[in-house]
Amino acid sequence: MKLQTFTVTASILAGAAAFAAAPPRGYSIPTIDLAGETNRQVVVDREPGQYLGHPTTVLLEDNQTMLCVYPKGHGRGAILLKRSPDGGRNWSERLPTPKSWETSKETPTIHRVVDAAGKKRLILWSGLYPARLAASEDDGKTWSELKPAGDWGGIVVMGFVEPLKTGAGHYLAMFHDDGRFFTARPQPTKPVTFTLFQTKSTDGGLTWSTPETVWKGTELHLCEPGCIRSPDGKQLAVLLRENSRRKNSHLILSNNEGRTWSDPRELPGALTGDRHCCKYAPDGRLFISFRDTTLESPTNGDWVAWVGRYEDIVAGGEGQYRVRLMDNTQGADCAYPGVEVFPDGTFVTTTYGHWTTNQEPYIVSVRLKLAELDDRAGKLPGNKTKIKP
Fold first, then answer.
1. With the C-alpha atoms ordered 44, 290, 232, 261, is the resulting torsion angle positive or negative?
2. How confident is the model at residue 6 (pLDDT cuts 50, 70, 90)?
3. Nearest-angstrom CA–CA distance, 111 and 174
4. Burial code of 60-87, b = ≥16 C-beta within 10 A, e = fewer?
5. Residue 379: pLDDT band by 50, 70, 90 thresholds?
6. Contact yes or no for 306/288 (Cβ under 8 A)
7. Does 1 reside within a domain?
8. What is the Cα–Cα distance from 115 to 203, expressed in whole angstroms?
9. Which residues of 150-184 are buried (b: 16+ CB within 10 A; e: fewer)?
10. Which backbone phi and psi does 15 adopt, to 5 degrees?
11. Taking Cα atoms as reference points, which of 352, 303, 366, 365 lies closest to residue 50?
């Protein structure tokens, strides 16, 4: 069913005023270029002649152990798994995985969940029809086989898995579909209809509800949701890719733990991209990694990040600065990123791309701290943004 729009709040009204005029297709904030700083880069996996893509990561509670999953191919392909014992500085060989992981049809995603009894587990999603789920009860040392989560499927299942305040072990997840994979029989429309779905779990991620429609449309192709909670914890914001490439990325908001959502509205060019992954720095600012699909951008098609505050997103502001993390040498085929942040403020962000000309894409991490970048951003020619932690 179509979810109803929630009561408008002051923060949303402020944002609506900022969005009254069409936001810019480009951006005026500065860009810091880290693409040539190889000292920040760690190769997670590379195989000559083999496409390696679309990773996601998870950082465990020891703030050292990281896991990374990714397909051996462009979305479809056997799911590969690696572990880092030291915060992404070094990585294991490819680890053993269940036989069914070889049958994955689409981008895998990995998430930490905790049930009402405090039991921690990892879950791994594999999309298209049917959406399938695997779980680990021992921090990724052993895994179950992939099993259908229900009689439904979709694309990039799941872009995020967000804890809810409705109860211990409650989670919200979102994905999208264009009519091809939600049911066993494809049901495409002309013009194509994009539908944004949400599903919820109340048992710590083991089972999931029948997906509900959050939004659907033909004029815009909104998809690949990335979620961030407001600093006061009261609001959820979801950033959305706009796949028709006619408009900037979009934003929806919920003030009631995802029971209802605002209508989508267009974001500034500075936040326009694919597959937004968002984490807070210790100083309260946001670091959001994505593929740059800004309609007017000198880094279009590269792996970039945005630095700013939650209030910038809601109010339609451009933020403080952008970062080019790496130079993608072929089209825009890169950057389904994982983002992890450590207590000392170090970000480790991980993705795939064509990092070497005329070679297949491979998986790389980049390490940085916002404190390292603030001074550089403030000194860039023409910068009019005052950088404050």
1. negative
2. very low
3. 13
4. beeeebbbbbbbbbebbbebbbbbbeeb
5. confident
6. yes
7. no
8. 6
9. eebbbbbbbbbbbbbeeeebbbbbbbbbbbbbbee
10. -65, -40
11. 352
Could you give the C-alpha distances from 138 to 61, 119, 146, 170, in angstroms and in order? 13, 10, 17, 20
Q: Residue 21, Cβ neighbours under 10 Å: how many?
A: 8
Give the confidence band of 259 by pLDDT, cuts at 50, 70, 90: very high
Tokens standing for 131?
A: 């959406």
Total domain count, the chain = 1
Tens of pLDDT, residue by residue over 271-324, are 999 999 999 999 999 999 999 999 999 999 999 999 999 999 999 999 999 999
| Type of residue found at 224 | E
Residue 375: what pLDDT?
A: 87
CATH of the domain at 303: 2.120.10.10
Q: Is residue 367 part of a domain?
A: yes
| Predicted confidence (pLDDT) at residue 216 exceeds the cutoff of 80 | yes
385 falls in which pLDDT band (50, 70, 90)?
A: low
**Residues in contact with 376: Cβ distance below 8 Å, sequence separation at least 6, in sequence order:** 32
Question: Rounded to whole angstroms, how far apart are CA atoms 109 and 58?
Answer: 9
Contact 327, 335 (CB under 8 A): no
Is residue 12 assigned to a domain?
A: no
Q: Which residue range is the domain that position 229 belongs to?
A: 24-378
Query: Tell me, what amino acid is at 246?
Result: R
Q: If you write DSSP's letter for every residue of 198-251 in order, what string do you get?
A: EEEESSTTSS-PPPEEEEEESSS-EEEEEEEE-TTSS-EEEEEEETTSSS--EE
3-state helix vs strand vs coil in the chain, percent to 5: 10, 40, 55
